[in-house]
């Protein structure tokens, strides 16, 4: 397992027990009458421990523990597991598992349980006020799974509540869910243990009368040429106000629709191809009575059936697991009319030797045939008729599996694109425990010839590998697997790292194939590859998912991949915190945005499929750092695709007719004549150029925005680079809202224009795009974005004060130039509350700071804060955990010259990895093989990491997102104390063939990739076996971590490789390799800068009185004690996080008159039980700090 590819998605080999019920979509409008009742459910099913935490109470004190899961699930891959032993918690104790909820409406809750020695369980729900509602429900005696229902969060007989509003009334939505297993709930109290499994958790919202319903005129709101962009509706309103935004969030179109007769169709004209979001407010007089949001897409003309069904691109589906087949037509409409799905052995052969194909035909295969969608059929999994349903290894089971696979090939050879023999055998998918390479190859040697005999022209692909970071794949090659497959199966997941990692992985696998195949390659079939969206630490934004699927299509074409199947087509659930629910390109049938509505990724994949239809790779231009520039030949002529790992503008010289197409299909065709300079504003999503263009060169043209505030115009700056122009030229930017600005740049010159854009009306991201024209000719599109906040804000988080005490630090900040008054600043912390400030002056461009002591904090505790400022109310909320400041690692105030020389560290506390590190290396020969010393330091601008690593062999074959595979350092930075952050930064630093590199996998609000303003230098002394690392990361790039809080949490590991791949690591703290978990980080305390000693006044030189007595030279200061490492983890495969992330659990903010709805900050990870001893009169420190400009 590796430190940076994420855990491979756990796909269920078991048919889902619940059948998704959907309306027939094709050709009809999906509408609910305006007077009908509408209900919603939210799937909170358990597929892993991600997002869950635990608490163990021994009768006197509670402590945080990791949540656990079991493979014994009701459906899917895992169930939540709570085990109790009175030897650990006493007869008065309990165990609990809980997770935050992102404002889920809960009027009832259902879930499935399987218990041993349990008579009752507790369900805890925390409402929007922070009030905890707990209900004990009886559990009937049963040996199997049974469904339990909580009929009401606050209406059951065994209900109790505390905290928050403290009124016993449910105030939705829910912010947290927990399950409690008490020692007293043991059925037989003479038995010390009890266990509880929980799965398939579903929150139900009560039916509400609907006064406005928006429907679909096409499946999923996918519109192709010739289809009007129209949305049927019913409503009791008299008018609809609507607006359409694009992927950047910019408003593209808006209008008002008058309603007649209570129903109609909302038509929207004039849109380019692309992905859009539609927001509609239904008005009755001056009152909004309904609000709906949905997404839609305008696509290019569908590819021909041959181009689509026989092309390179496809998607993995789960129609064989009871997906509704209504989405299937969108495969063909998108231009990738191929799917990969299961035909379960246990379902088609229920009697030995007899095969019934009726069920898979009815579920999806007959419809696929009708639609011209080609299936890649997966032959799996176990069958209870043979080897008790395990992976087949006995002669009888192997022969039976081979017969089943051959029969399937024979049955579907005219429509299938291939047969995949099993899925992820090495991970034990399908309940298989026979995971060895030898067992698989034995199966392959029997099944492949059987399939070939039954369907000679049908490709057989394997081996069924999931984890490409072990020797399993090579082991199968060594055992002869290559002789039995027509194509190599790969699942090269790298999320949240970008698609660029795919290129290195394909090169590595191809080299391995050629090593065992007489120097010959074999076709590669990527049958799973994808990126989850949502709120999980390893998820990415929907825009990043879209960019990555398009880039993967380009890289797959570059490397000649035979087939590329994106995993997967439709979201598998609606829980945003569960990665397994959110890989899809389309939304789940029960999604609030509408059944099968598109994510941007669907449109980006469709655009790539159209651009690359019939394409062959020609070249890659690497002349500009960070820019990927790929060339292809297509039936329509030359094509280039460009994107960049860091935002930058380039220009190309075009001749003749050239078409510029963005990642979502919007195109501009330019008649460049004998030559015209086009401008490309590159980011993570590809731009396509069709026609004759030169190699790109860097351009100084740019559009930037200053930080913005609600209600104030946004300052913009436009630089136009005309240095290559032979004449003075008038340039114009035309924004999507019609705003135009112009400037003239002289021949061979640059010009800059400062101007203002309309004031934003809400906080969040603010993005604009504008078409650039020169002398009336389209030259390109420029875009820019910034963050909009309230000028007045309240925020809070864990800090360490000047006296070294743990505190909750509240800040009221004023970004405007005008002074104001904080009428009152108050807080609630668990059961304690108080007023910190009354009538406090707050100058312009400054902040007021108040601290609440946390010395007596005994458990994770929720807090809320309110500030009355300038006639409005600010709110913030979060949670804090106990912190032992004395045990925190000390971080000295020291500016480091980042030059690869460790000459700035005298007297700085250090971390000795040989003494306190967790050594997870394989085959280590001792400290000379891998050990070292690490120092953290800081100043007002940067956080510094310095390291002196003993490593006898330097081996770093990779770059970018895959540097973890070789010698490198990974380190994390999170706001607050360990376990408080739900999103954080994770960096890697390595000396690559291209020089020192710093790469970020996880971030808070910025995205993966390079880090603007960071510095890195690495020097290697091969003779001494020593590598020196020095890194400086600006505080402003660290997403919430603040130097003036004097506290952050983090961990690090040093990866080891000696020429044969990654051989493990040595770690300080955890939460990087084995799993992504900020609770395993260490606390780090930023020490204050030391004032220099004053220079004493010179005194008269005394007369000598004889030979002085020598004194001992004082010993140098002893570095502070290094804390013990955090909880270690074994080598892992988690990579973590996305761009974006919605703040962390230790705090958040909301603007004036808002209610603190700032993602996870709104209530954060609320405490389950607070053991808080602070009184209402807790001492608080208040000070005012002027903001730095």
Automatic annotation (TrEMBL):
Comp. bias (Pro residues): 1093-1117
Gly residues compositional bias, start-end: 1127-1150
One Pfam family from the record: Glyco_hydro_cc
PROSITE patterns documented for this protein: TAT
Signal peptide: 1-39
Carbohydrate-binding domain ranges (all copies): 925-1069
Protein keywords: Membrane, Signal, Transmembrane, Transmembrane helix
GO biological process, one term: carbohydrate catabolic process
Residue numbers spanned by region Disordered: 1091-1153
Protein origin, superkingdom: Bacteria
Family matches, as CDD domains: CBM9_like_5
Key word Signal present: yes
Residues of the Asl1-like glycosyl hydrolase catalytic domain: 422-575
GO terms of molecular function: carbohydrate binding; hydrolase activity, hydrolyzing O-glycosyl compounds
Residue intervals passing through the bilayer: 1161-1182
PANTHER family, A to Z: ALPHA-L-IDURONIDASE, BETA-XYLOSIDASE-LIKE PROTEIN-RELATED
Entry protein name: Sugar-binding protein
Organism listed in the record: Herbiconiux sp. A18JL235
Lineage, highest ranks first: Bacteria, Bacillati, Actinomycetota, Actinomycetes, Micrococcales
């Amino acid at each position: 397992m590796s430190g940076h590819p994420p855990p491979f998605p756990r796909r269920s080999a078991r048919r889902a027990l619940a059948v998704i019920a959907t309306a027939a979509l094709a050709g009809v409008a999906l509408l609910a009458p305006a007077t009908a009742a509408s209900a919603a459910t939210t799937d909170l099913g358990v597929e892993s421990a991600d997002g869950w935490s635990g608490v163990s109470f021994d009768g006197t004190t509670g402590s945080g523990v990791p949540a656990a899961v079991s493979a014994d699930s009701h459906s899917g891959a895992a169930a939540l597991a709570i085990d109790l032993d009175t030897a650990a918690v006493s007869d008065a104790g309990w165990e609990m598992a809980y997770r935050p909820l992102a404002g889920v409406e809960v009027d009832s809750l259902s879930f499935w349980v399987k218990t041993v020695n349990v008579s009752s369980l507790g369900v805890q729900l925390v409402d929007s006020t922070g009030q905890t509602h707990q209900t004990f429900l009886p559990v009937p005696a049963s040996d199997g799974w049974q469904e339990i229902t909580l009929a009401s969060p606050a209406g059951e007989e065994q209900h109790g509540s505390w905290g928050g509003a403290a009124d016993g009334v449910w105030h939705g939505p829910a912010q947290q869910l927990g399950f409690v297993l008490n020692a007293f709930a043991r059925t037989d109290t003479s038995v010390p243990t009890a266990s509880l499994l929980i799965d398939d958790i579903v929150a139900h919202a009560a039916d509400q009368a609907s006064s406005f319903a928006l429907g679909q005129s096409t499946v999923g709101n996918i519109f192709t040429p010739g289809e009007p962009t129209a949305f049927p509706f019913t409503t009791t309103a008299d008018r609809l106000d609507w607006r359409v935004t694009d992927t950047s969030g910019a408003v593209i179109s808006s209008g008002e629709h008058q309603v007649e007769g209570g129903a109609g169709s909302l038509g929207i004209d004039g849109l380019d191809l692309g992905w859009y979001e539609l927001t509609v407010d239904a008005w009755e007089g001056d009152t909004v009575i309904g609000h709906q949001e949905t997404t839609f897409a305008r696509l290019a003309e569908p590819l021909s059936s041959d181009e689509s069904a026989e092309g390179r691109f496809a998607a993995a589906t789960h129609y064989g697991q009871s997906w509704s087949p209504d989405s299937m037509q969108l495969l063909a409409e998108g231009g990738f009319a191929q799917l990969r799905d299961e035909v379960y052995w246990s379902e088609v052969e229920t009697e030995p030797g007899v095969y019934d194909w009726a069920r898979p035909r009815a579920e999806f295969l007959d419809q696929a045939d009708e639609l011209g969608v080609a299936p890649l059929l997966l032959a799996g999994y176990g069958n209870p008729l043979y080897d008790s349903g395990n992976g087949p290894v006995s002669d009888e089971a192997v022969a039976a599996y081979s017969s089943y696979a051959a029969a399937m090939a024979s049955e579907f050879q005219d429509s299938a694109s291939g047969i995949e023999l099993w899925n992820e055998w090495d991970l034990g998918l399908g309940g298989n425990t026979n995971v060895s390479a030898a067992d698989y190859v034995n199966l392959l040697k029997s099944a492949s010839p059987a399939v070939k005999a039954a369907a000679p022209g049908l490709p057989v692909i394997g081996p069924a590998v999931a984890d490409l970071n072990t020797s399993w794949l090579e082991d199968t090659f060594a055992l002869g697997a290559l002789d039995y497959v027509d194509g190599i199966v790969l699942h090269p997941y790298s999320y949240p790292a970008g698609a660029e990692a795919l290129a290195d992985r394909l090169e590595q696998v191809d080299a391995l194939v050629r090593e065992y195949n007489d120097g010959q390659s074999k076709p590669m079939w990527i049958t799973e590859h994808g990126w989850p969206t949502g709120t999980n630490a390893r998820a990415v934004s929907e825009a990043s998912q879209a960019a990555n699927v398009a880039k993967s299509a380009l890289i797959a074409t570059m490397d000649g991949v035979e087939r590329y199947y994106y995993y997967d087509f439709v979201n598998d659930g609606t829980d945003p915190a569960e990665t397994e629910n959110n890989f899809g390109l389309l939304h789940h049938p029960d999604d609030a945005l509408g059944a099968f509505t598109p994510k941007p990724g669907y449109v980006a994949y469709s655009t790539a499929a159209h651009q690359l239809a019939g394409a062959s790779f020609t070249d890659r231009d690497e002349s500009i750092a960070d820019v990927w520039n790929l060339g292809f030949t297509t039936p329509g002529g030359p094509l280039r695709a460009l994107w960049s790992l860091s935002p930058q503008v380039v220009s190309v010289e075009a001749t003749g007719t050239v078409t510029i197409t963005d990642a979502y299909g919007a195109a501009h065709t330019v008649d460049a004549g004998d030559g015209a300079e086009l401008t490309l504003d590159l980011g993570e999503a590809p731009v396509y150029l069709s026609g004759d263009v030169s190699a790109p060169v860097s351009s100084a043209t740019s559009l930037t925005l200053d930080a913005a505030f609600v209600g104030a115009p946004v300052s913009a700056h436009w630089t136009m680079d005309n240095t290559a122009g032979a004449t003075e030229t008038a340039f114009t930017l035309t924004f999507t809202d019609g705003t135009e600005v112009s400037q003239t740049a002289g021949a061979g010159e640059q010009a800059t224009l400062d101007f203002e854009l309309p004031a934003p009306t809400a906080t969040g991201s603010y993005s604009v795009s504008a078409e650039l024209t020169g002398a009336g000719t389209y030259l390109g599109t420029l875009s820019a974005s910034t963050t909009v906040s309230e000028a007045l804000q309240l925020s809070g988080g864990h800090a360490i004060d000047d006296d070294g005490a743990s505190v909750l630090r509240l800040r009221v900040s004023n970004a405007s130039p005008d002074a104001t008054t904080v009428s009152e600043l108050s807080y609630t912390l668990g059961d304690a509350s108080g007023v910190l400030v009354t009538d406090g002056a707050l100058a312009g461009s400054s902040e007021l700071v108040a601290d609440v002591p946390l010395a007596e904090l005994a458990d994770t505790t929720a807090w809320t804060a309110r500030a009355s400022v300038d006639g409005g109310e600010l709110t913030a909320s979060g949670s804090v955990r106990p912190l032992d400041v004395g045990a925190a690692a000390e971080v000295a105030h020291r500016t480091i010259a980042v030059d690869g020389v460790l000459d700035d560290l005298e007297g700085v506390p250090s971390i000795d990895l040989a003494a306190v590190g967790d050594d997870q290396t394989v085959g280590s020969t001792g400290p000379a093989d891998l050990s070292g010393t690490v120092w953290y330091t800081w100043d007002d601008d940067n956080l510094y990491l310095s390291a002196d690593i003993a490593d006898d062999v330097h081996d770093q074959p990779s770059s970018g997102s895959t540097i973890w595979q070789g010698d490198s350092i990974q380190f994390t930075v999170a706001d607050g104390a360990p376990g408080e952050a739900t999103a954080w930064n994770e960096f890697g630093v390595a000396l690559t063939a291209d020089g020192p590199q710093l790469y970020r996998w996880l971030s808070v609000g910025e995205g993966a990739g390079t880090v603007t303003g960071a510095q890195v230098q690495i020097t290697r002394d091969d003779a001494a076996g020593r590598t020196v690392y020095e890194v400086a990361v600006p505080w402003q790039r660290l997403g919430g971590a603040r130097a003036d809080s004097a506290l952050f949490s983090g961990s690090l590991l040093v990866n080891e490789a000696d020429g044969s791949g990654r051989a493990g690591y040595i770690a300080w703290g955890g939460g990087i390799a084995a799993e992504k978990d900020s609770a395993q980080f260490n606390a780090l305390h930023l020490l204050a800068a030391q004032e220099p000693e004053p220079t004493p006044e010179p005194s008269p030189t005394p007369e000598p009185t004889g030979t002085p007595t020598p004194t001992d030279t004082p010993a140098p200061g002893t570095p502070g004690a290094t804390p013990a490492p955090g909880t270690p983890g074994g080598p892992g495969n988690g990579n973590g996080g996305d761009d974006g992330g919605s703040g962390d659990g230790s705090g958040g903010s909301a603007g004036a008159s808002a209610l603190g709805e700032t993602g996870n900050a709104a209530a954060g990870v609320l405490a389950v039980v607070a053991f808080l001893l602070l009184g209402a009169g807790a001492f608080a420190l208040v000070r005012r700090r002027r903001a730095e400009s």
